[in-house]
């Protein structure tokens, strides 16, 4: 009877949680759904059915892809390609830096290791916006303005990715590294042959963090790379607001294209991402 009662109670709790989760999810997704619908509406109909809300608010009477065609024929296509290039190299190079730094902080004994880790944690807790303007001045003095290098460099030392990988490496049995060292492997060999193969999930999670951080960045690209040939997608979306007016149809289409890329990646790597944040490494 006790187990049956517990099962019944768990089912009731699950139903209540679902009853609360569904409305919250619908409210959360409604703006994105409205933006998607607005992107396939003619421009004059986007705000026609907002007040009061009617069924046409979320079900357009006319569907057109003209906004997407216009966006892809505009300079926004180059900006989207720039975002892909910058995000790709930020993830690849950022993972290399984060994995090596995390391995050093987790496995190598050196003086001041705890101080370095504490400073790293403090640095990634500081909002990037607080240092963006003086950092952009330094980058301009170094000749890195309006360049891919200037866009990529700030993403390479992502403290959250280093922290995530360090926590995983701390959970890997030290006996594995000690045995490899006795067999003649260098520390880099231990990192490359033992720790990296075990950290596929955390690497994917750290890579997604780096990707999202770089993909949705607006202030830094606006400060350091405003030139049209290196402009990224979030900055290009703002260009649809011009002195003659705002083309909301094209703006919504550009926003949907920009948000679709990280959404698809998160859906594809969701299992690895949730696993990387839930696990802390294999145990002895």
UniProtKB/TrEMBL annotation:
Keywords: Cell membrane, Membrane, Transmembrane, Transmembrane helix, Transport
A Pfam family annotated for this UniProt entry: BPD_transp_1
Membrane topology: Multi-pass membrane protein
CDD domains assigned to the protein according to its UniProt record, in alphabetical order: TM_PBP2
Principal location class: membrane
InterPro entries: MetI-like, MetI-like_sf
Superkingdom, natural source: Bacteria
Residues annotated as transmembrane: 17-37, 84-108, 115-135, 147-165, 248-269
This protein's record includes keyword Cell membrane: yes
Keyword field contains Transmembrane: yes
Annotated family: Belongs to the binding-protein-dependent transport system permease family.
Protein name: Carbohydrate ABC transporter permease
Species: Georgenia halophila
Lineage: Bacteria, Bacillati, Actinomycetota, Actinomycetes, Micrococcales
């Amino acid at each position: 009877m006790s187990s049956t009662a517990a099962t019944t109670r768990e089912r009731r709790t699950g139903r209540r949680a679902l009853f609360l989760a569904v409305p919250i999810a619908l409210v959360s997704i409604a703006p994105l759904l409205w933006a998607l619908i607005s992107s396939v509406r003619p421009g004059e109909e986007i705000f026609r059915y907002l007040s009061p809300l009617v069924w046409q608010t979320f079900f357009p009477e006319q569907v057109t892809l003209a906004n997407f065609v216009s966006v892809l024929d505009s300079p926004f296509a180059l900006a989207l390609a720039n975002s892909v290039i910058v995000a790709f190299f930020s993830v690849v190079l950022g993972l290399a830096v984060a994995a090596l730094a995390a391995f050093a902080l987790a496995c190598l004994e050196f003086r001041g290791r705890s101080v370095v880790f504490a400073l790293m944690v403090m640095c990634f807790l500081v909002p990037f916006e607080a240092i963006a303007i003086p950092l952009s001045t330094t980058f301009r003095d170094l000749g890195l303005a309006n360049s891919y290098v200037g866009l990529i460099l700030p993403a390479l030392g992502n403290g959250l990715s280093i922290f995530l990988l360090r926590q995983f490496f701390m959970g890997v049995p030290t006996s594995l590294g000690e045995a490899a060292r006795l067999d003649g492997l260098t520390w880099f060999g231990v990192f490359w042959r033992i720790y990296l193969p075990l950290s596929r999930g955390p690497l994917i999670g750290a890579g997604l963090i780096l990707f999202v951080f770089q993909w949705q960045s607006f202030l830094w690209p606006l400060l350091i790379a405003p030139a049209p040939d290196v402009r990224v997608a979030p900055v290009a979306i703002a260009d649809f607001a011009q002195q003659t007016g705002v083309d909301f149809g094209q703006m919504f289409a550009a926003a949907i294209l920009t948000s679709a890329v990280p959404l698809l990646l998160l859906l594809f790597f969701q299992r690895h991402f949730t696993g990387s944040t839930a696990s802390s490494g294999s145990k002895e």
